[in-house]
Write a structure and sequence with these properties.
Layout: H1 10-21, E1 37-43, E2 50-56, E3 65-68, H2 79-86, E4 89-94, E5 97-105, H3 109-122, H4 125-132, E6 139-144
Antiparallel strand pairs: 1-2, 1-4, 3-6, 4-5, 5-6
């Protein structure tokens, strides 16, 4: 079994620990926003170790999850973006529910625009993040397997 490398930032690591340690009953929102998050467990492309990232909970009408690689509008993609792009098998925990998913990066402009709108509705700061950066913020879709 692969090793687990916890998130580097204390508050992120603490949220993942609280979320998973409670079985998905605590730590399920982003800090003090009250907005829901999910935990995405993925394989690091360089280390081969398990990594975990709390991401905003964005779900489409047909039950697919949208993963937004915003990094708060930073000029570069979050490191998890490259692992998900290269190794598309993940596990998602949405509160008490845990399931395997396969992801793909959205490249179709119409699909991306639709999913971006859904994402901004779920987490309005995404709009500001896109304005802060010159890169187009990547979007993945996660489908249960």
């Amino acid at each position: 079994m692969a090793d687990y490398i916890p998130p580097a930032w204390d508050w992120v690591r603490e949220q993942v620990d609280r979320y998973e340690g409670s079985g998905g009953t605590e730590g399920t929102t982003l800090r003090d926003t009250g907005l829901p998050v999910i935990i995405v467990t993925y394989t690091g492309r360089k280390t081969g170790a398990f990594r975990k990232a709390p991401l905003m909970r964005v779900v489409t009408d047909d039950g697919k999850y949208v993963l937004v690689a915003s990094k708060g509008g930073a000029p570069e993609n979050p490191t998890w973006y490259y692992s998900l792009r290269d190794l598309p098998e993940v596990t998602i925990q949405d509160q008490e529910q845990v399931f395997k998913a396969r992801i793909y990066e959205v490249s179709d402009a119409d699909e991306r625009a639709r999913l971006w709108d859904i994402s901004v509705q779920a987490y309005p700061p995404y709009e500001e993040y896109q304005q802060k950066t010159s890169r187009q913020i990547p979007i993945f879709v996660a489908e249960r397997v």
